[in-house]
Specification:
Strand order of the largest sheet of chain B: 14-15-16-13-12-17-18
Helix content of chain A: 40-55%
Number of helices of chain A: 10
Strand content of chain B: 15-25%
Structural class of chain B: alpha/beta
Number of strands of chain B: 20
Largest sheet of chain B: 7 strands, mixed
Structural class of chain A: alpha/beta
Largest sheet of chain A: 5 strands, parallel
Order of helices and strands of chain A: EEHHHHHEEEHEHEHEHEHE
Distance between the termini of chain B: 67 Å
Oligomer: heterodimer
Amino acid sequence: MVTITTKQRIEVLKTYKIYVGGQFPRTESGRYYIPVNAAGKKLANVCLCSRKDFRDAVVAARSAFGGWSGRAAFNRSQILYRMAEMLEGRKAQFVEELMLQDASKVKAEKEVNLAIDRLIYYAGWCDKYQQLFSAVNPVASSHFNFSVPEPTGVVAIITPQSDSLLGLVSVIAPVIAGGNTCVVLASEKKPLCSVTFAEVLNSSDLPGGVVNILTGKPSELASWFVDHMDVNATIYCENNSDVKKMMQEKAATNVKRIFFYDKIKWETEEGQSPYFILDTQEIKTTWHPVENIAGAGGGY
Amino acid sequence: MAVKTNPASRAGKVAKKTAKPVAKNNTLKLKFDTSWTYAPAPESKSAATINKQYDLFIDGKWQKPLSKTYIDTINPATEEKLSEVAVANEADVNKAVTAARNAYEKVWKKMPAKERAKYIFRIARMVQEKARELSIIETLDGGKPIRESRDFDVPTAANHFFYYAGWADKLEYAFPNRKTAPLGVVGQIAPWNFPLLMAAWKIAPALATGNTVVFKPSKTTPLTALKLAEIIEEADLPPGVVNILSGVGSTGDAIVRHPDVNKIAFTGSTEVGKMIQRAIAGTDKKLTLELGGKAANIIFEDAPIDQAVEGVINGIFFNQGHVCCAGSRLYVQESIAKTVIRKLKDRLESLIVGDPLDKNTDIGAINSKQQLETILEYIEIGKKEGAEIYQSSCAVPKKGFFCKPTLFTNVAQSNRIAQEEIFGPVLAILTFRTDDEVIEKANNTPYGLSAGVWTDKGSKIFNMTKRMRAGVVWANTFNKFDPTSPFGGYKESGFGREGGLHGLLPYLTLKG
C-alpha cells in the first residue's frame, strides 16, 4: 500500500469506454468486467458490451458507409496517413498500456512501431489496389466492358486476442482502406490500447461510424457478429474450430462473406498485403454499348 | 402456313391508296394481325443423336449407376420422354471423387500447363464442331428457343472453353506477387436454365487452373452435359479429370458433403445456396455461389425509349425469364411511364410464343411443370396484391408447359412480385421521380446480381452504375455475357466471380 500524503498529486484515472458512431458512450447494458494482468493488477472497469451495443454499432457503420465509400480514394489515403501520425504522437501512451498488458518494453515499442508502419502501408494502398484488381475486358461484342472492385459494405471483426494493437490495426486497415465500414470487438483480455486507439481514430478526421470499437466477450458476442442481417462480411481471427463452424453456419442467413485470419503472423510481412483488401471487395462489371459508326467498313 | 401476301408489295399498295399523309402520332398502335403470320420454320431433330439411356461418366468410362436407378428426362414443350439418365447416389459420387482425386494427384497436377491447355482447346473446338447438335438437344431438353441455344448458349459455351484454355499456362501473370496453386477436386452443381453454358462456366476455369472436376447437371436438363461428357471422352482427356454425374438433389448433397472435395461451385437458388453454405460449415472447403436475383432495370425520361423497350423485353423474356440476372423489376420515370407501358404492351403482343424448335419463336417452353406452377402461383399472388395484370393475347400450345408473357403495373415496392425471384416471364413495373428515389428502391432488395439503366446522359449513367449494388450492371443494354467478363453477385446473390481474370481466383490458392 502506498501511504497517502497530503502533498501527493492524485492520478486521474481514465474511464475506458466504447467507440460508436464517433462518440464514446458506455455500454447500454451498464455491465462491466475487469481484465487482470499477469501481475494481478486490475486493468480497468471495461464495458461488457451487449447484443444491443453491437446492433447500435451496425446502424452507425451502415449510416457511415455511403459517405466513406463515396470519398475519393486519395482522401481515404490521407486519413489513414493521419491515423499513423496520431498514433506516432501517442507512442508513449500505447507502450505504457501494452506493458500494463504484460508486454516487455522492447516488445511493446516494436508493436507500436509496426502498427504505425502498417497504417502507412495501407494508407498508400487506398488509391492503388483498384488499378491492381480492375480489368478492362475485351468482350467480343461492341461494348466497353470493365470490372472494378467496390467495398462489400459493413464488416464485423473479432480481432486477434493476443496482438491487441498490431492485430487490431492490421485487420481494420485493409477493411477501411477499401471503403468499408466496420464494427470491431477488441481483445477481451487486453482491451486498453483498442479503446485508446479509438481516440486516435477520433482525432484523425476519420468520419464517425467508419470504425466502431466494442469491448466484451467473444463467447457472448460472436454469434451476433455473424447472424446480423445488415452485416455483409465477418472476419474472425482466432483458431477456435467450434466458433468457426458456428460462424460459417450462421453466415448463411444472408450469404455473408466470412474470413478466418487465424494463422497469420501479424508481426511479419505476411500480415500485410493488398489481397487482404481484396477479401472485402466485390467485383462490379459494367457494360456500355459502343456505337459502331464505322460498321459500314470505314475507319481512320 | 404460307404468307398470303408479300409484305413489300402490300406496303406498296397501301402507299398508293393513302392519298393524305398520316400525321406523325406516336400514340398509333402497331398492328401485327392479318397477313403478318410466319410460316413454321422448325429446326430438324435429325441432326441430333440422343441415346435411349445414359450412364454416369466416371473415370473416363460410362458406368452403370450403383444406385441402379434412372430417371426420365422430358421435352417440356411436348411432355414427351427424350431419354433416361442414371441417378448417382452417394456411392457413385464417392467413386467419382476417388477418380478425380487419382487423376489430380497422378496426372493433372503434374502435367505441364501448356499441355493441359491443349485438352481444353480441344473441348472448345469439338463443342464448335457439334454446335448444331448441341443446340437442338439443349432446346429439346430445356424448352428454350432454338434461336437462343443456337446463337447464344452453345457458341458462348465453346468460347468459354477457348478463353480459359489460354489461361492455363499464364496464371503467374494473373495475380501480382503471388504464386498460384490449384485446390484439388472441385464439386460443381449447375442449374437448368443454361445447362451447357453453365457446364462450360464451371468446368473450363476449373481445368485451366489445374483442378479435377465432379460435375452434376440439373435433374431436368442433363442431356447436353452428357453430350459434353462424350466430347470430353472423344477429346481423350485423362480418365477422371472430368466426371459427369446426372442425378437429383441428393446427388448434389453427396458432392457437397464428400470429405475429399476441396471446393464447391454452385449456381442455383438462394435457398439451396444457403443450405450449401451451412452444409460445408466446419470444413476447409472453398465455396462460390451464384444465386438468385431481382434485377432493377431503370428507364429515365431522357432514354432512347424504343431501344429501352427492346432492352426491357430482352431483359425479362430472354430464356422465358429463367435467368438469375433477369431484369424482373422495371423502374420507369413517371413522366414517360404511360408511353413506355403502352410500347411494352404492344411489343408483348408481337412476341411469338410456341414451339422452341421453331426458328421464329421468341418464347419457348417453361422448363418444367414444377416451375410453371411456381410462376402461375406468383401471377395469382400479384393479382391478389392488387397489381394490374396484362398478358399477351397470343395462343399457347395445349400440350407442354407454356406461360404467356406477363406484365404487372401498379406494383408496390413491398409486393411479393417486386421482392421475390419468380424465374419466369413476369415483369413487375414500378415508377419513380428522382435519381435518389430510384437508387434507394433499386437497392432495396436482399439480392444484388445485376441491374440495368437506360439514359442518354453519360454522367448519369456513371452515377447510377456506381451506386447500384450489383455485380453486373448494363447501361443502355441488358443480358450481355462474354467469357472475358466477370459475372457474379453482391449480397444474397452469392460470392465469387465466373468469367474473365477474376473467374480464376475461386479455383486457386495464392501463396506469398
